[in-house]
């Protein structure tokens, strides 16, 4: 498979790399220091808004939106993949370019399935980076890896829908800029299993919406982005807030998750690549037992294994992106399952090795490694846990070859 890129994409890669070097990496410490130094952690560091304005002025904005040239850069999934990798090298990188989750997936849903009034009210300010959004699907009372388990109800009453339920791990909801949520719930429990769910737009300030608490990941609240537990009690929104038709929620979710998994995996590959580079620099600069760490056999082996694993994951993810572009999400689902199984675990392993070479420093806030490790471990659950993808992939492969 040919992964050569056009001059346009090569130019964007160079420009994004330069922007990261000149702007994003130097801003990381200032970003985190601002949050740590604030009495209220749910604040937006001014440096992020500065980065966004610079990226917008440089024409490096909304690069993710593959199919809608009027809104984004008109790039295919394959063309966007190397850009996502570069952005993923910093935990604040994607947001600087308005290319961070869950906004990317929500914008794709609105662009693909939303009505024009829905796009005007919510997609345009998201594209402009004026607001942020959240996606509320996972629930604490059920195994939400099976989306058909969802218990949140979306009941039609005259010209309104009434929403009741409890969600959690709603990423982005505690962010003070979050103004809109896409909520997934059931509109018809008697419909066929995959036609019971619908998706609907719910403004965060709607009466009956209660953000119960931000959830912590390995003890970190991930401010100012965060992951919320949310209670919906008789929340009423206009019927026009429904995305698509009743019963289309599961199909919309699948269409949303395909590109999202490509983005997550490429960002994680960027994390792993940066961790490898930091590991090499650390190993070359530290001496233990009379030799540089880079001269220790076990360290060299870890570095060698890491570069092999990163390159394997990168090529597999690029192949999945190309397959999505050539056919469809449905026909590429085996490769998408493969990358979701491979990339997060690879990144977690490589980052863990880098932490080990850094010693105690690797556990601290003095490198990005601890935060990157938490991100990699989280994505092994987000967008479907490993076991779900392995089960689905195994079923596909048996069906393909058993005959």
Describe this structure in words.
There is one protein chain. By secondary structure, the chain is α+β, with helices and mostly antiparallel strands. It has 3 domains: 121 residues, Orthogonal Bundle (Butyryl-Coa Dehydrogenase, subunit A, domain 1), CATH 1.10.540; 112 residues, Butyryl-CoA Dehydrogenase, subunit A, domain 2; 152 residues, Up-down Bundle (Butyryl-CoA Dehydrogenase, subunit A, domain 3), CATH 1.20.140. It is built from 11 helices and 10 strands. The chain has a 4-stranded mixed sheet. It has a 4-stranded antiparallel sheet with strand order 2-3-7-6, with no helix packed on it. Helix 9 crosses helix 11. The radius of gyration is 21 Å and the shape is globular.
């Amino acid at each position: 498979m040919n992964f050569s890129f056009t001059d346009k994409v090569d130019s964007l890669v160079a420009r994004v790399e330069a922007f990261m070097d000149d702007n994003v990496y130097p801003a990381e410490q200032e970003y985190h220091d601002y949050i740590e130094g604030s009495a209220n952690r749910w604040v937006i560091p001014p440096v992020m808004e500065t980065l966004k304005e610079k990226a917008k002025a440089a024409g490096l904005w909304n690069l993710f939106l593959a199919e809608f040239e009027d809104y984004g850069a008109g790039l295919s999934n394959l063309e966007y993949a190397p850009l996502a990798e570069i952005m993923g090298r910093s935990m604040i990188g994607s947001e600087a370019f308005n290319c961070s989750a869950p906004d990317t997936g929500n914008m794709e849903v609105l662009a693909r399935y939303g009505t024009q009034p829905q796009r005007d009210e919510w997609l345009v300010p998201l594209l402009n980076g004026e607001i942020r959004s959240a996606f509320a699907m996972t629930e604490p009372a059920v195994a939400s890896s099976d989306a058909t388990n969802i218990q949140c109800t979306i009941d039609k009453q005259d010209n309104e829908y009434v929403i009741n339920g409890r969600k959690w791990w709603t990423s982005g909801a505690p962010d003070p800029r979050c103004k809109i949520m896409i909520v997934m719930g059931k509109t018809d429990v008697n419909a066929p299993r995959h036609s019971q769910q619908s998706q609907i737009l719910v403004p965060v300030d709607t009466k009956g919406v209660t953000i119960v608490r931000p959830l912590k990941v390995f003890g970190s609240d991930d401010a100012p982005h965060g992951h919320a537990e949310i209670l919906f009690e008789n929340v009423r929104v206009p019927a026009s807030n429904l995305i698509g038709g009743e019963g289309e929620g599961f199909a919309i979710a699948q269409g949303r998750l395909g590109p999202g998994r490509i983005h997550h995996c490429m960002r994680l590959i960027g994390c792993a690549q940066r961790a490898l580079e930091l590991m090499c620099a650390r190993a070359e600069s530290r001496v233990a037992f009379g030799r540089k760490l880079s001269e220790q056999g076990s360290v060299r082996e870890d570095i060698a294994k890491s570069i092999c694993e990163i390159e394997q994951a990168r090529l597999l993810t690029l192949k999945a992106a190309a397959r999505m572009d050539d056919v469809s999400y449905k026909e590429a689902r085996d490769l998408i399952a493969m990358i979701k199984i491979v990339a997060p675990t690879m990144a977690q392993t490589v980052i863990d090795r880098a932490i080990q070479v850094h010693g105690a420093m690797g556990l601290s806030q003095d490198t990005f490694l601890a935060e990157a490790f938490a991100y990699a471990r989280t994505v092994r659950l987000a967008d479907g846990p490993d076991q779900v993808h392995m089960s689905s992939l195994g079923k596909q492969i048996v069906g393909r070859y058993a005959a």
